């Protein structure tokens, strides 16, 4: 069988095929947890309303929505929460959370953004969207514009970015 | 880890975790008790639980060979000492084949000492005593003494949170003895044969049921089983599959009525996933 592009999968198969694929996906997920004794499985997907996104969201017990602080992201997130996530979280214990992405660190932005302002902003966002903000991923230029790609938090565990990521992971773990 | 059978079919017959138990397996000769015991032992070895096999009817070599014929290759386990055969067979031909051979199984104290010796250095083990019937035919003790011997074995098995299966052919014993036996163990497995008439003539159907088991919720109905190249496999009278993940539902299904129609799921999680997807895709999601 030839490797298919993800967009081909969506456009070249009918809904019956898509539904069958979801069932296989669910079966695979169950097998992974039972056979491999997994604690946690991260499904990385776009927040859109395509088949692959919706199916992944429906399979998950917990949804973490990673968003930037731009107005466009906020509006888009609001729409997604109202249209999709609310429906998904209606059944079972599934819950949705927000993770703020590319938050400027105080050292990088000369005091324009601090932990206090981040907290206040997160609270405001929580009220506005109605979804809890779990934490944030900081933005560092040395990572953003790094020439090479590697597992940063593992290679440089003492970097402030890595520490913040570990802190976020711990918070997410507590929610599980 | 996968839902692993302690004994063949245990995950289908028992809900949740099976407590460490000493089980009595009752069944007529030729039905598959010995294979059942060997498979139980092999399942344990595969999960790092050492095994002790007491045999009155087969030599250690023959046990290994017959296990291999079902794909249970125990050579490595015999070599590293995690499978120990208490040989109550070879005394007949005057051979003392291994250090766990019993020269006089007519004396149950000797048998008991051989089992204790085989248990040395091992903590949680799986024991198969194959069989009570075989041992009864060669031992020279009365019923009370024999019953005491079994009670001690069961107590020692419990003390180490181990599992054990004791095989018996009911046709060789009277009712009083069989009633005694049922009292001694934590649970009873029963096997029986039924003859079925079909287009190709008469066919023997093998059935298994878990009659009793202390400390666990379990099914009690007869379940058909077959003996194939991989040992014993429980068959399904009627296959019920999860609507969401299509997996065979071994235990009670999680049933939900959605828009007036009843659906069976493997778990609550599958049911919730199904409802989420249905709420997004609509009733066409079947």
- The CATH architecture designation of the largest domain in chain B is 3-Layer(aba) Sandwich
The low-confidence parts of chain B are none
Instruction: Please tell me the total number of domains of chain A.
Output: 2
Instruction: List the secondary-structure elements of chain A in sequence, H or E.
Output: HHHEHEHEHHH
> What is the residue-averaged pLDDT of chain B?
89
Residue share in β-strands of chain A: 5-15%
Number of strands of chain B: 11
Mean pLDDT of chain A: 79
The biggest chain-chain interface is: A-B, 24 and 23 residues
Rounded to the nearest angstrom, the distance between the terminal CA atoms of chain A is 38 Å
Which architecture name of the largest domain in chain A does CATH use? 3-Layer(aba) Sandwich
pLDDT < 50 runs, ≥5 residues of chain A: none
Q: What percent of the residues of chain A sit in helical stretches (DSSP H or I)?
A: 40-55%
